């Protein structure tokens, strides 16, 4: 029983999400480099949908994962960013400035390294690949390190990764869409306006926002902008304030309990009668109305994202067939991605945060040395999920896409190993 409880607690921990992501990646690589290679690729390219007369309505399984399921992941990211902006480490300039500027540096330098190596080539469009940080992996590594590193460093890296996600979303919206169709774009803006009005009018029903979100997804997808951006816009429109305050909930529960206590109780029956069922239902409805819609949706999506969407995305996208005849000399894709994540990230994070403090813009958090900042920058080089996502948007040529995936996997693994060793050495040096 003790072992079962320990295992259950480990699975529920935040670090397990990153570990499960790693397991999915290893499985994808094993399958893609086995005799099952062709079945693996043909499965994800298989169309999935339904037929109406002679018209097929649907998409490939790969498209369902990358554009539909990943929209729920981006919805969760948007909710986390909004929560941080309202109540967390991004709710004031003094708190947000230092990690935010570090995040910008950690995006700009890798982008410059990649673009500088590939300038004038068809591959230069992949500059966004090394700009991203995988928050699940980075946080998972931080949590595994435990007390060996200060808590303030974990907060710094999480905040940096949140701002990094926001930056990646902006990059995707600006540079990785298709041709813009004005009619669909105007229709999308009208839906966004309706969502804002719903929020301002105090509508709390999540079903209303999610239904409008589905419509927004179709309109944005048709407009030429990448559809996952609609999920982030939807997240920023989800209301924060609950229908009932906690004081009102407390008083209501008191009234219900007093009312129920006056009724005759059949202690011998294990079945709930009509009055008991009504009592339980009223408590559930009251508790639901007291919860913040934003937090309720975030808590619902979090396990689905960590244990289903992201691992499935990793399994569908990380399966690179490492062939001996793979051309590593396609422009400088491999070098640009690898150096961007492994070298550009830590340099960008360190330089930007160093200048931020020296110019008096913001102060470094207490208990974090410059060596810790450099170590966090190394872990920020774990691009993985977001980098793979951008890679799929940046390249149409399959060989270039496969090469960028190999570079992402190797760079993320290198950043993880180097970052962990460096932070452990920093901890020992401090002790």
What does it look like?
The chain has 431 residues and is mainly α. 72% of the residues lie in helices and 3% in strands. Strand 1 and strand 2 (55-60) form a beta hairpin. The longest helix is centred in the C-terminal third of the chain and has 33 residues, at 398-430. The mean pLDDT is 83.
H/E element sequence? HHHEEHHHHHHHHHHHHHH
Quaternary organisation: single chain
Q: Helix/strand-derived class? A: mainly alpha
Side by side, the strands of the main sheet go: 1-2
Low-confidence parts: none
Mean pLDDT: 83
Outline: globular
How many helix segments?
17
Largest sheet: 2 strands, antiparallel
Computed CA radius of gyration, to the nearest angstrom: 24 Å
Q: What is the number of beta strands?
A: 2
CA-CA gap between termini: 37 Å
The helix fraction, in percent, is over 70%
Beta content comes to under 5%
Fill in the keyword field for this structure.
two-stranded antiparallel sheet; 2 strands; 17 helices
Task: Set down the secondary structure blueprint.
Blueprint: H1 2-12, H2 14-32, H3 37-44, E1 47-52, E2 55-60, H4 61-87, H5 93-118, H6 135-145, H7 151-175, H8 182-200, H9 206-223, H10 228-237, H11 246-261, H12 274-290, H13 293-317, H14 333-358, H15 370-379, H16 384-394, H17 398-430
Antiparallel strand pairs: 1-2
Helix pairs in contact: 2-6, 2-13, 4-7, 4-10, 4-13, 5-7, 5-14, 6-7, 8-9, 9-10, 11-12, 14-15, 14-17, 15-17, 16-17
């Amino acid at each position: 029983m003790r072992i079962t409880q320990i295992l259950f607690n480990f699975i529920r921990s935040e670090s397990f999400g990153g570990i499960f992501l790693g397991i999915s990646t290893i499985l994808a690589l094993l399958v893609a480099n086995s005799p099952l290679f062709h079945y693996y690729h043909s499965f994800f390219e298989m169309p999935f949908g339904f037929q109406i007369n002679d018209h097929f309505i649907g998409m490939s399984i790969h498209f369902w994962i990358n554009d539909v399921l990943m929209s729920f992941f981006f919805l969760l990211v948007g909710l986390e960013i909004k929560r941080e902006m309202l109540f967390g480490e991004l709710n004031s300039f003094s708190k947000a400035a230092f990690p935010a500027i570090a995040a910008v540096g950690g995006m700009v330098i890798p982008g410059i390294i990649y673009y500088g190596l590939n300038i004038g080539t068809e591959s230069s469009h992949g500059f966004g690949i090394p700009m991203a940080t995988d928050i699940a992996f980075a946080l998972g590594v931080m949590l595994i390190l435990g007390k060996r590193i200060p808590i303030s460093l974990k907060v710094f890296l999480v905040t940096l990764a949140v701002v990094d996600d926001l930056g990646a979303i902006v990059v995707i919206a600006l540079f990785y869409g298709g041709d813009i169709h004005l009619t669909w774009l105007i229709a999308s803006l009208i839906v966004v306006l309706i969502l804002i009005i719903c929020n301002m009018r105090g509508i709390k029903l999540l079903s209303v926002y999610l239904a409008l979100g589905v419509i927004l997804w179709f309109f944005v997808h048709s407009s030429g902008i990448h559809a996952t951006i609609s999920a982030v816009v939807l997240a920023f429109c989800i209301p924060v304030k609950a229908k009932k305050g906690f004081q009102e909930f407390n008083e209501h529960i008191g009234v219900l309990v007093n009312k129920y206590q006056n009724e005759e109780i059949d202690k011998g029956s294990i079945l709930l009668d009509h009055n008991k069922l009504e009592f339980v239902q009223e408590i559930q409805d009251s508790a639901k109305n007291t919860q913040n819609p934003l937090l309720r949706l975030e808590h619902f999506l979090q396990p689905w994202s960590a244990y289903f969407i992201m691992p499935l995305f990793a399994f569908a996208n990380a399966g690179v067939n490492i062939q001996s005849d793979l051309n590593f000399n396609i422009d400088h894709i491999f070098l640009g991605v690898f150096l961007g994540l492994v070298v550009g990230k830590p340099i960008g994070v360190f330089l930007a945060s160093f200048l931020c403090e020296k110019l008096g813009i913001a102060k470094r958090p207490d208990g974090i040395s410059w060596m810790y900042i450099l170590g966090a920058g190394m872990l920020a080089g774990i691009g993985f999920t977001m980098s793979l996502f951008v890679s799929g948007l940046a390249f149409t040529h399959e060989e270039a896409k496969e090469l960028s995936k190999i570079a992402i996997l190797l760079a993320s693994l290198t950043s993880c190993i180097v970052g962990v060793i460096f932070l452990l050495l920093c901890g020992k040096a401090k002790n």
